[in-house]
Amino acid sequence: PYHLFAWKRAVESSYGHHCHYLYAEKDGQLVGVLPLVHLNFPGLVNELTALPYCDVGNCLCNSGEVQDALLDEALNLQKKLNCKKLHLRGALKETELAKSSFQVEETGKVRMLLKLPASADELFSSFKSKLRSQVRKAEKNGVTFRWGGLDDLEAMYFVFAKNMHELGSPVHAKNWLRSVLEHYGKKAKVGLAEFEGKTIGMGIILLACQKVSIPWASTLREYNRLGPNMLLYWNFLKYSADHGCREFDFGRSTAGEGTYRFKQQWGAEPEPLPWYTCSKAGKGADESQHADQRGLAAAIWQKLPLPAANAVGPRLRKYISL
Predict the structure, then answer these.
(1) What are the CA-CA distances from residue 91 to residues 57, 108, 145 (Å)?
(2) Rg (CA), the chain
(3) How does DSSP classify residue 283?
């Protein structure tokens, strides 16, 4: 879903970044694409990323030859724009150009992917009894699910922004979510969990062909005992299975951590998620140093009052590619 032009249009219309979408043709046929977004804040950030704000981007192609043609053009573009870094997210075919020009980032992350059966009934039957009871528990607790849309933007953004603040992360601009929903149209679905008339959970899924991705989902922590997350994800999976989708991408996680176990319980299995960097400065700081810096930044961010975090966060978030 992230390779669709809708992602490009959302990035350009909400954040104003310039996009360079490369494509390869052979004998009049499209044989490869590489979408790149230029994040540029003079003196601080100047990088090309495929793709920002999601887990995967990189080349879609049918051979190493096509991949090399796309990578070669991307490297030329990096030089032309004087970008400090070129980031690629997703597996590369191991060609000489790829191995010599790009360094693997040690992120420790995996994608959690679930192969979907032909129907939601078949999927629900495959769950362990504990998982089925957790889904039913949310409904018994009075949590309800409904499909939403742009009219629900204020309510779902409050949940999203509050959750991001508690996680210590600058939140995306409200206009970013609006742009994604507008440009994806029917390929984007908003799910809302409600309790006593109040929105306590939200999530957005994006669809392309028979694949579904969930870039964002949040709940209000004070209501988590009611199980809104279980109800949200079950309805997303139910919709996906009943509408002919065959793969649900839960997104990236670190093996063994809480989000990994949450996704694993639905039957999702880990797949390596290599990220690559071509840096003008050569090898950068190791991942442990970056993790320490992120941990300190998150701790500071959590102490900001929520209104201040929501005012400043989007201005920072547009330049953070994660």
Answers:
(1) 9, 14, 36
(2) 20
(3) S
User: What residues have CB less than 8 Å from 147, skipping those under 6 apart?
Assistant: 189, 190, 191, 192
- DSSP one-letter code for 172: P
pLDDT at position 284 is 46
- Are residues 160 and 289 in contact, defined by beta-carbon separation less than 8 angstroms? no
Do the Cβ atoms of 142 and 200 come closer than 8 Å?
A: no
Yes or no: say if 260 and 111 are a contact pair by the CB < 8 Å rule.
Answer: no
Mean pLDDT for 238-245 is 97
pLDDT of residue 307: 81
Of the candidates 46, 41, 45, 54, the residue with the CA atom closest to the CA atom of residue 11:
54
Beta carbons within 10 angstroms of residue 69's beta carbon: 20
Categorize the per-residue pLDDT at 288 as very low, low, confident or very high, splitting at 50, 70 and 90: very low
pLDDT of 43 higher than 50: yes
**What is the signed CA dihedral for 279, 37, 11, 23, rounded to 10 degrees?**
-150
DSSP secondary structure letters along 77-103: HHHHHT-SEEEEES-----HHHHHH-E
- pLDDT tens-digit series, residues 61-77: 989 999 999 999 999 99
Distance between CA atoms of 35 and 55, rounded to whole angstroms? 13
Out of 11-20, 207-216, 217-226, 302-311, least confident range: 302-311
Residue 273 has pLDDT above 60, yes or no: yes
How many whole angstroms separate alpha carbon 14 and alpha carbon 314?
11
> CA 234 to CA 120: how far, in whole Å?
9
Chain-centroid distance of CA 111 in Å reads 10
Contact by Cβ (8 Å): 111, 249: yes
